[in-house]
Amino acid sequence: MILTHCACCAAPLDHKAPRCGICKTRYCGRGCQKLHWKQGGHKAICQEIKRGGGAEQFHADTRYTEAVGAAAEACADDTKGQTCYICTEALHWKTKEGLVRMCACRGTAGFAHVSCLAEQAKILVAEAEENNLDDAAFDERSERWHRCRLCEQRYHGVVQCALGWACWKTYVGRPEEDGLPLLAMNLLANGLYAADHHQDALSVREAELAMKRRLGAPEEAIFVVQGNLAITYDALGRHENAMRMLRDVYSGRVKLLGEDHPKTIGSANNYALSLVRLKRFGEAKALLRKMIPVARRVLGENDEFTLMLRTWYAEALYQDDAATLDDHREAVKTLEEIERAARRVLGGVHPTAAGIGKNLQAARAALRAREESDVSGAMAAMAPPSA
Questions:
Q1: Per residue of the chain (387 residues), what is the pLDDT tens digit?
Q2: Could you give the angle at the alpha carbon of 278 between the alpha carbons of 276 and 284, nearest 5°?
Q3: Of 352, 205, 362, 365, which is closest to residue 269 (Cα–Cα)?
Q4: Domains in the chain with CATH codes
Q5: CA 163 to CA 117: how far, in whole Å?
Q6: How many Cβ atoms are within 10 Å of 29's Cβ, its own excluded?
Q7: DSSP sequence for 214-229
Q8: Which alpha helices (H) appear in 258-349, and where do they start and end?
Q9: d(Cα 368, Cα 16) in Å, to the nearest integer?
Q10: Cβ–Cβ contacts within 10 Å for residue 74, how many?
Q11: Is the CB of residue 246 less than 8 Å from the CB of residue 270?
């Protein structure tokens, strides 16, 4: 499933690709399988992979360990001298991993080991299954895989990536039909994207979409994966592919859910961003003038989507070649307002708040350049003609 390329030649695979009969490593064909066994070194490690639970489990465990190390290293300065709020130790008793924290917790709260967070989530989901809890209760418990129990903010960056691998390695062996592999696949793709592993995220998204189609998922579930897939295209520079897919998802959700639905607002946000990146500013501003009031009414002034929609509108204002001086001033004023709100609500290190801050700096620089240009132009117009 997540091993989406041939272990020998790296060609893309589908879910029916042949596998090693011992460890389940996947290949594009029997020729590559034989070549990898004889000359590629697979014979030497096949039994080790089997003892590790098979190719998918072995791969997931290996990548999880790497991701936990990267997360602990990235958080080392922030977690120095702290202890895990779950196990109360600085180093994990078994794995010896360091602490992480990438949420909105303040002070001494929120420090934890990825292993402790993962074990907590695993236990909660298992209890929900054992007690046949309804979907709402199950969803609430499964959120512990990606949301802090203390501050209720989603994890981000390398911590989100590590928890994505933790979730996938926990459920990789489950049947596709029981839903947990799809949950894990989605969280893993989100985490890979958050940690800027965009090519890996793309492979997981494509596998997720293929699995949902195989399972006959409803239209809205397909929209979710397509939207995420388009965002990944965008991160890889495939902006036209992304824009077309995001346009279709947005229009599909307007028809299915209505303009006021939060998911439609999220789709509008993604579609608007793609238009801005393609410098289709007229289309972007028309969409945003329609959807920003909807987001304010439905989600509230300080919701992350509302802040982001207003950010893209400000960006479209000042980046447009036809922008007036008033457009530049409006963009700066708007970004100053939403940057303060984002820092207050999300925290200064949150990616959205940081991105708005960078946009504000760029807008201020563009405004200064425009003002200086206008002054120079005015002075040139006032200068007496040359003799």
A1: 577 888 888 888 877 788 899 998 989 888 999 999 988 899 999 999 989 889 999 999 999 999 999 999 999 999 999 999 999 999 999 999 999 998 888 888 899 999 999 999 999 999 999 999 999 999 999 999 999 999 999 999 999 999 999 999 999 989 988 889 999 999 999 999 999 999 999 999 999 999 999 999 999 999 999 999 998 998 999 999 999 999 999 999 999 999 999 999 999 999 999 999 999 999 999 999 999 999 999 999 999 999 999 999 999 999 999 999 999 999 999 999 999 999 999 888 888 899 999 999 999 999 999 988 877 766 666 666 665
A2: 35
A3: 352
A4: 1-51 (no CATH), 267-371 (1.25.40.10)
A5: 8
A6: 15
A7: HTT--HHHHHHHHHHH
A8: 262-277, 281-299, 304-319, 325-346
A9: 58
A10: 18
A11: yes
The helix/strand/coil state of 112 is strand
Listed in sequence order, the DSSP H helices in the chain are 30-38, 42-51, 55-74, 76-79, 114-130, 135-142, 157-171, 180-194, 198-214, 219-235, 239-257, 262-277, 281-299, 304-319, 325-346, 351-382
Pairwise CA distance, residues 144 & 121, whole Å: 5
Q: Which residue type, as a one-letter code, is found at position 233?
A: Y
Instruction: Compute CA distances 2 → 12, 144, 186, whole Å.
Output: 11, 22, 11
Q: From CA 309, how far away is CA 302, in angstroms rounded?
A: 11
The amino acid at residue 91 is L
Structure tokens at 175: 């049947």
